[in-house]
Amino acid sequence: MDNNRNDRQRIEELVELLNRARMTYEQKDIEIMSNFEYDKLYDELKSLEDRTGYVMSQSPTVNVGYEVLSELPKEKHASPMLSLDKTKEPETLKAFLGDREGLLSWKMDGLTNVLTYRDGELIKAVTRGNGEIGEIITNNARVYRNIPLKIPYKGELVIRGEAIITYSEFERINSEIPDADAKYKNPRNLCSGSVRQLSNAVTAKRNVNLYVFGLISTDPDMGFKTRHEGFEWLSSMGFTCVEERLVRKDNFDEVFSYFKTQVAKNDFPSDGLVLSYDDLEYSASLGRTAKFPRDSIAFKWQDETAETTLLDIEWSASRTGLINPVAVFEPVELEGTNVSRASIHNVSIMEGLKLGVGDRIEVFKANMIIPQIARNLTESATAQPPKACPVCGMPTEVREDDGVKVLMCNNPDCAAKKIKSFSLFVSRDAMNIEGISENTIEKWINEGILRTTPDFFRLERFRDTIVELEGFGEKSFDNALKAVEKARKTSAARVLYGMGVPNIGVATAKLICRHFSDDMDRIRKASYEELVEIEGIGDVIAREYAEYFKKPEVNAVLDDLLGQVEIAKAAESTAELKFQGMTFVVTGSVEKFKNRNELKAYIEERGGKVAGSVSSKTDYLINNDITSDSSKNKEARKLNIRIISEDEFLGL
């Protein structure tokens, strides 16, 4: 009797813990435990439920998921999107297949979408959501890199696919984010945020791809008998389908071995495989359980683990005030590479693992990519959050946010909070103050030379202090002063970008300033209603921009800055707005202009927009080597976008 009571109590504990972990991950992109730990606890819960017959109504083994929080409109799916039963044993897969023929394919790790085409056009895209209700993301799906907006099939077509961001794209985007704390944790989180944007301009920049894994419905007369036939037809319509291979009992080991070898070479995130019966009539006859379809099963890779010793826990401060723990351990080889560091994410995970320097720990790579701690064999629990910020030395505070403990630095003058904003201010596209590194900025902040960004224009006051600093001297100071003086003559767009307004990049700053004729008073007072009227400015950007300039401290800094610089008056352009509403991409070398920046300015002066990558929104790709097989040329041909030379461009 006591055992039954203990089992039920453990089941209730696991249900609460797993649901909280899933909710914080899906709704807030916050991890309170590793994937490894989640899977282990899930398997324990399932085992207890099978043994006792006790299953709670809120158990994650019978519930599909939480409803995602956002401002996107929602819609109920025509048929529920069920999870798949899963295994980590290849023999279980083989037993599931039996004597039948099946399809083995990648289990992609992104965000599931349902796309509907009617009369040959994409009319709707909806996320999986909680399996019953999803979010409508049609505008965002239209800018995915690889889906057709029109297809030759004129009946109604419903498909399911996984929106993903490749590892190479994930690394590219993270490389452009200077603040370590602001970097995305993994491609799945980045993809989820990119797909669920209120402005599809953001989605377009993220190069999202969709891999189709299910043909849900077509007109009855299509008459597909197998999944394989359906995939081949979808490919002929222009869709990118998930890689799949026909598998039988006699070739199972060979096909499985291929996927196991290939996974480490893939540029896309995949957390396992899916095995489905190929025969559609047989699949339909099997029906479903409360949570799982009976015709498919998911396989998750057994994570390769290695045992090592925890040498240190470093604490990394960021501009947001968060101080995140990072595990440093004796190097081990995992998935073919040496690993010596792993993010612990927050204080809750550190405490849950009961970490301490000298502990023996097991580490692994989540999805064979991201180093994480699987478990702690010693559990000394001696590690404690530092009482002082590692950057400014001021007291820290452990806060709890939705049950997750995080370490914060409360010092508003902490150098970590200012270095990144000052670095943006002096960057090439902002005030363009040459030769000022982050290291220099950090020293000047610590010496009290820099408190706000306009202080760069008051360096003369601190000549004696600066020339005495290590690595400086009269010559270094004079060079810095010359760069500052040169930067005094600037443009409204540089000032606006340098202010660090949320979501305002270089191109958007130019767009806003051009709209308001470089009048800084109108630029700072722009209302939400005025901003959303500008083509390319969406709801979220407009709202955050207007709120940002309502802050007294922001306007005080801007007033100070405007007293230090001279903004060139916007020249009245005599050029006609021939390219109004048109988007160009420029690649390769240019001949008629000094450089690509001059060509870009020429287009923008005439009302056009220059994007960095080819998408369905692109009107022309300018490339003097029209016949080349460059990636941009290939993408343009794929999307039926015209490739033109400079001569053809000027002929427009």
What's the gist of this structure?
The chain has 652 residues and is of the alpha+beta class. It is built from 24 helices and 24 strands. It folds into six domains: 2-52; 74-300, DNA ligase/mRNA capping enzyme (D-amino Acid Aminotransferase, Chain A, domain 1), CATH 3.30.470.30; 305-409, OB fold (Dihydrolipoamide Acetyltransferase, E2P), CATH 2.40.50; 415-487, 5' to 3' exonuclease, C-terminal subdomain (DNA polymerase, domain 1); 492-567, DNA polymerase, domain 1 (Orthogonal Bundle); 583-651, BRCT domain (Rossmann fold).
Topology:
Layout: H1 2-28, H2 35-52, E1 74-76, E2 86-87, H3 90-97, E3 102-108, E4 111-118, E5 121-127, E6 133-135, H4 138-141, E7 157-164, H5 167-175, H6 187-195, H7 200-205, E8 209-217, H8 227-236, E9 244-247, H9 252-262, E10 270-277, H10 280-286, E11 296-300, E12 305-317, E13 322-334, E14 337-343, H11 347-352, E15 360-366, E16 370-376, E17 396-401, E18 404-409, H12 415-426, H13 438-446, H14 463-468, H15 474-487, E19 489-490, H16 492-498, H17 506-515, H18 520-525, H19 528-532, H20 539-548, H21 552-562, E20 566-567, E21 583-586, H22 596-605, E22 609-611, E23 620-622, H23 631-638, E24 642-644, H24 646-651
Parallel strand pairs: 2-11, 19-20, 21-22, 21-23, 23-24
Antiparallel strand pairs: 1-6, 3-9, 3-10, 4-5, 4-7, 7-8, 10-11, 12-13, 12-15, 13-14, 13-18, 15-16, 17-18
Helix pairs in contact: 1-2, 12-13, 16-17
